[in-house]
Amino acid sequence: MNGLWLGVLGTSLIAFFLKFSGHSIPEKYVTNPRALRINTLIPIALLSALVGVQTLTEKGKWVIDQRLAGVAVALIALSVKAPYFVVVISAAVTSAVLYRM
Hints:
Blueprint: H1 3-21, H2 27-30, H3 33-56, E1 57-58, E2 61-62, H4 66-79, H5 84-100
Antiparallel strand pairs: 1-2
């Protein structure tokens, strides 16, 4: 067994025990209004950071290219409350057209 498999098994065990230990947290900590507010904002912050990194960087360097235009079009579509399908397709088409130019 090489180091990669040891890492996979070790990480799996850690993830299992973290999830298993989550059941032993007292309910007063889980239902705390502050904790609930933080837990609802964490996925939004992580997804925003992911979109920002994937849009503005390439191989660790800042890049401004067609992806930024696609995200801008998606933000405009979201601001006018367009359906999700329209947001995704308009961003993809914008990025594809600018990539081909």
